[in-house]
TrEMBL record:
Belongs to the FemABX family. This is FemAB family protein. It comes from Candidatus Gottesmanbacteria bacterium GW2011_GWB1_44_11c. GO terms for molecular function: aminoacyltransferase activity. It comes from the Bacteria.
Amino acid sequence: MELQQSSLYKTYIERLRWTVVTLDGVNIFLKHIPFFGVLAKIQRPPTLPYIPKLILILQKHNVRNIILEPTIDTDPIKFQESLRSLSKFFNIHKEPFLPTKTLLVDLTQSEKDIFRACTEAKQRGVRRAQKHGVIVKESKSIKDLMHIKNKSAGFLGGITTYGIDKLWDLFSPNHATILLAYAPSSRPLSRDLMSTKKMPYLRQLADRHDNIIGGVLLLFWDHIAYYWIAGATKNGKKLFAPTFLVWEALKLSKKRGNKQFDFVGVFDERSPKQFTSWHGFTKFKEGFGGKPLYYPIPPITSTLRR
């Protein structure tokens, strides 16, 4: 089951003050938006609800606009028929809310093979972060992660972390974890401090100074680890903290028994005018050897690309 159709995600959306209606096992998210009307989001449903019943439910809630985002297993013919039926009563929103392309890393491989699949640049980045003394630890502090994300996102930081604390409260500890990267010192470390024997000392030093330079929120559902949100300071980027965080996230996700690592969205070349600002972090994510997964883009064709 896709994360967006899970019981925990349903409760999360409700806490964001959306109305959630479940029809034929499918969660439908409803929200009144000023000057736009009521929007209905049906995201990654395992199967489409019975359309006549769906129309009645949506009319009951005065829905004017629908966003319907299928899964890779959606029957394209039935989906097209459903769109035609729904378009007689509602406006079909063409722009997707969810990324239509992502990257998946196979976590059933050995740890060595996962590392070898990374580009040489990413392998060097991991080693350089370790050489600089960067420490990555699990944390329960969603506030620290939100702070580092807000700091890295600039004046839009508050938007990027909206509702993340509510998500964390619901998914942790069984279905979520936080990884934080620390720099124990702003000065280069001596060879003595870089020795393996001194690593416990570095961890204590990182905690004491609380010098957080990056962080990642991971969600876990149905044996898939989701790279949900991440951020890093300028200093963290210089010290290769983002690369080191992903590597540690891959190892931890594998250790927890997940089979795939989902990067939760990259630039989709099928829609070149959409999400054009994603080129940078798409290149970053591609460096970890994941394989592309394409979701259908309405109107979809009979051939789905994987």
